[in-house]
């Protein structure tokens, strides 16, 4: 699971908000799919730049994540490196692309747990739910002092 950090919550919510407001979404396009939209927010690269970088490698996000090499200097590996440095894991990104993280899905009502990877509304729900989960992890780490009433 992504690092429990406020910046993770913010970028997940921002990505969900932009998708719900109509930003370009196309699951088959490396710059405007699930990971592509998140990568736009983290890296500040355009969807076209991300897509062009991805086309220098082979396969979809999942395959490029599997082939990731932090020392390769391939443009897509640099994009992935930025996402990892931000606090996401390779597994987080693979799960995002397929809206499949069990911890995220478990938080949804049973009848809504079958999200489709290529449906904008399902991706928005996944991102919002993931942000809620990370936010709860942050709050669980906060220790409040014991106050005694006199």
Structural descriptors:
single chain, 150 residues, mainly alpha, 8 helices, 0% strand, globular
How is this structure best summarized?
The protein is mainly alpha-helical. About 55% of the residues lie in helices and about 0% in strands.
Ends distance: 42 Å
Calculate Rg over CA atoms: 17 Å
Tally of helical segments: 8
Main structural class: mainly alpha
Instruction: Write down how many β-strands occur, each being a DSSP E stretch of 2 or more residues.
Output: 0
Q: List SSEs in N-to-C order.
A: HHHHHHHH
Name the helicity range: 55-70%
Q: What are the segments in which pLDDT stays under 50 over at least 5 consecutive residues?
A: none
Global mean pLDDT: 93
Q: For the report, how would you describe the main beta sheet?
A: none
Q: Work out the strand percent.
A: under 5%
What is the chains' assembly state? single chain
- Report the principal-axis shape: globular
């Amino acid at each position: 699971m992504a690092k429990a950090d406020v910046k993770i919550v913010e970028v997940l919510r921002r990505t969900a908000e932009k998708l719900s407001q109509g930003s370009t979404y196309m699951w088959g396009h490396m710059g405007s799919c699930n990971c592509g939209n998140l990568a736009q927010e983290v890296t500040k690269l355009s969807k076209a730049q991300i897509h062009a970088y991805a086309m220098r490698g082979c396969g979809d996000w999942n395959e490029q994540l599997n082939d990731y090499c932090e020392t390769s200097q391939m443009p897509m590996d640099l994009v992935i490196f930025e996402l990892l440095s931000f606090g996401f894991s390779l597994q987080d990104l693979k799960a995002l692309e397929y809206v499949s993280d069990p911890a995220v899905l478990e938080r949804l009502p049973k009848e809504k747990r079958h999200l489709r990877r290529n449906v904008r509304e399902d991706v928005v729900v996944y991102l919002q739910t993931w942000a809620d989960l990370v936010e709860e992890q942050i709050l669980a780490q906060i220790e409040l002092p014991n106050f005694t009433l006199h």
